[in-house]
């Protein structure tokens, strides 16, 4: 894997109201750290020992300590009621993702000197965060014992990785979108609002760099990697040298152009002139880079690669980007799905792209040519797709998008890839999402989303929802597949 994945270290800072026993916060912090370490290890956290924050001076001391310790995420832990000014100033001045959680009372036998009232303190903390316009993650139920709060901090890690990653991300694009392909067009202003940089280049810039890599001494080693990965699926061996040349071109471009940014994603124009000039299609290389930790979207889908990056850092696994492509035929549904899985025909669809899904996420794979492009171009310039059925299992279908009027919105849906043969071509799978038909109509269509959706392999909706909220997507603009009986605002009440 290329080092393109954010890592977070959470500084745990306990706070105390000066009219409450400081020992409550000290002992509860120690118990929290002990519980976390026992269950998850100590690698992701740091216990701030300098002080219990009771004042603004303590806040400064704690802030300096966790920065010195290399913390890039913060947990403000209310061991008791807490000082609403100092604790929220700490969050304000900490540059990075932050969360708040609070200690529950421990025993009925110690509710006089041992009562901390952090249940109450969380209300004041949240109110002061809003007064100061400070974003912070607050768990669904933010009050708990040491073990509960340890779990809350662990749940915060993927959220923190995503927020940290976005603030240090550069998206590199090549070429404008293909003509007659407005679907992935979106204003880039929201990227800047998120703290994301973008570098837009011409296809000609990329073509020049590619040609300069002809004969690169590293090409044979990359070809060997590809041969080992493809195995018996290596149906187009004659194209591997060019694909290796292209992969090295992109990797070198990333290193030369990342600038001051830690993380990079790519998006490129893959048709109509790409094939005739480069002599291949880039799908397989896109899949390899995504598997190596640099997500790549096709068709210059800038918010597509942004979505892929978020899913990658949340799941810490390879993701893919697919067209929400075609319906499942009735005869396939009746033969392979009906009575075997609890889905209606309208709950199912096929997710497809030409060949950009990593081999590790395919049940089988073969290097082929792009059939759709080959209908109008010589077959030999359309080689380079990685085709196969997507592995069955749980998935999260999601996307972060800027609308035409520059508003940030997103959607998230849990579902699965069914173990059903697609009998088709490309990187493709039979997907099932509960109430997909209604979600398709009243979120995807009504929300003006493009046909590209990101796919994470597993159920990550909880973390993605919190990421979207944290980065500023209004809650009402986060669509999801509502269960039967819960009507969408645009849904006809008479069906």
TrEMBL record:
Residues 352-477 form the L-fucose isomerase C-terminal domain. One of its GO terms (molecular function) is L-fucose isomerase activity. It comes from the Bacteria. The keyword Iron does not apply. It holds the Pfam family Fucose_iso_C. GO terms for biological process: fucose metabolic process. Keywords: Carbohydrate metabolism, Isomerase. GO terms for cellular component: cytoplasm. PANTHER family: FUCOSE ISOMERASE, L-FUCOSE ISOMERASE C-TERMINAL DOMAIN-CONTAINING PROTEIN. This is L-fucose isomerase and related proteins.
């Amino acid at each position: 894997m290329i080092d393109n994945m954010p890592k977070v270290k959470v500084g745990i800072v306990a706070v105390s109201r000066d009219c409450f026993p400081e020992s409550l916060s000290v002992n509860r912090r120690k118990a929290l750290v002990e519980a976390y370490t026992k269950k998850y290890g100590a690698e992701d956290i740091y216990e701030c020992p300098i002080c219990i924050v009771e004042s603004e001076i303590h806040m400064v001391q704690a802030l300096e300590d966790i920065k010195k310790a290399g913390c890039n995420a913060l947990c403000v832990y209310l061991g008791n009621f807490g000082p609403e000014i100092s604790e929220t100033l700490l969050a304000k001045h900490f540059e990075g993702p932050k969360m708040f959680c609070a200690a529950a009372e421990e025993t009925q036998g110690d509710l006089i000197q041992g009562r901390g009232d952090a249940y109450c303190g969380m209300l004041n903390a949240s109110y002061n965060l809003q007064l100061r316009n400070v974003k912070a993650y607050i768990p669904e139920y933010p009050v708990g014992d040491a073990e509960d709060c340890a779990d809350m901090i662990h749940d915060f890690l993927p959220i923190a990785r995503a927020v940290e990653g976005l603030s240090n991300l550069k998206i590199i694009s090549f070429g404008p979108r293909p003509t007659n392909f407005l679907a992935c067009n979106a204003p880039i202003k929201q990227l800047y609002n998120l703290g994301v940089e973008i570098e837009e280049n011409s296809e000609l810039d990329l073509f020049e760099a590619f040609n300069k890599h002809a004969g690169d001494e590293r090409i044979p080693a990359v070809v060997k990697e590809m041969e080992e990965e493809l195995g018996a699926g290596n149906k187009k061996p004659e194209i591997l040298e060019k694909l290796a040349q292209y992969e090295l071109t992109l990797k070198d471009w990333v290193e030369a152009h990342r600038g001051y940014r830690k993380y990079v994603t790519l998006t490129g124009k893959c048709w109509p002139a790409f094939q005739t000039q480069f002599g291949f299609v880039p799908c397989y290389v896109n899949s390899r880079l995504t598997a190596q930790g640099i997500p790549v979207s096709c068709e210059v889908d800038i918010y597509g690669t942004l979505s892929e990056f978020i899913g990658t850092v949340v799941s810490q696994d390879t993701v893919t980007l697919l067209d929400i492509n075609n319906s499942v035929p009735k005869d396939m549904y009746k033969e392979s799905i009906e009575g075997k899985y609890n889905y209606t025909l309208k709950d199912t669809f096929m997710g497809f792209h030409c060949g950009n899904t990593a081999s590790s996420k395919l049940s089988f794979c073969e290097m082929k040519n792009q059939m759709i492009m080959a209908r109008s171009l010589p077959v030999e310039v359309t080689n380079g797709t990685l085709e196969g059925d997507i592995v069955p299992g749980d998935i999260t279908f999601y996307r972060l998008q800027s609308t035409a009027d520059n508003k940030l919105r997103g959607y998230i849906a849990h579902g699965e890839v069914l173990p059903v043969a697609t009998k088709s071509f490309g990187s493709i799978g039979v997907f099932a999402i509960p109430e997909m038909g209604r979600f398709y109509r009243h979120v995807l269509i009504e929300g003006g989303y493009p046909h590209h959706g990101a796919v994470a392999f597993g159920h990550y909706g909880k973390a993605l929802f919190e990421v979207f909220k944290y980065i500023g997507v209004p809650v009402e603009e986060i669509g999801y597949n509502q269960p039967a009986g819960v009507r969408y605002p645009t849904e006809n009440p008479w069906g």
